[in-house]
Specification:
single chain; about 80 residues; elongated; about 0% strand; 4 helices; mainly alpha
């Protein structure tokens, strides 16, 4: 429980000393750099989309569905800590 509280504070809190780590970690997990190309690659190989369509689809999915999920995870995590 202590680890969970500490990790929640670091990942979802607003402490200034954790801000850089939080932004790098969330950027890597939900990221603009990594997630959109992975989704695009899956769309091309699994569904046969063109590379251009897959790139657009990957970016849209990453921005509108996955990135907001980080807020939901933090809210649910906070409820479970209590």
């Amino acid at each position: 429980n202590r680890w969970s509280k500490s990790l929640h504070s670091m990942m979802c809190g607003s402490a200034e000393e954790d801000a850089e780590f939080r932004s790098k970690f969330l950027g890597a997990v939900t990221g603009k750099q990594a997630l959109a190309p992975i989704i695009a690659g899956v769309a091309v190989t699994a569904f046969g989309l063109s590379a251009a369509m897959a790139a657009i689809l990957g970016t849209l999915i990453a921005r509108h569905f996955v990135n907001p999920a980080a807020d939901e995870i933090c809210q649910t995590w906070a409820k479970n800590l209590k």
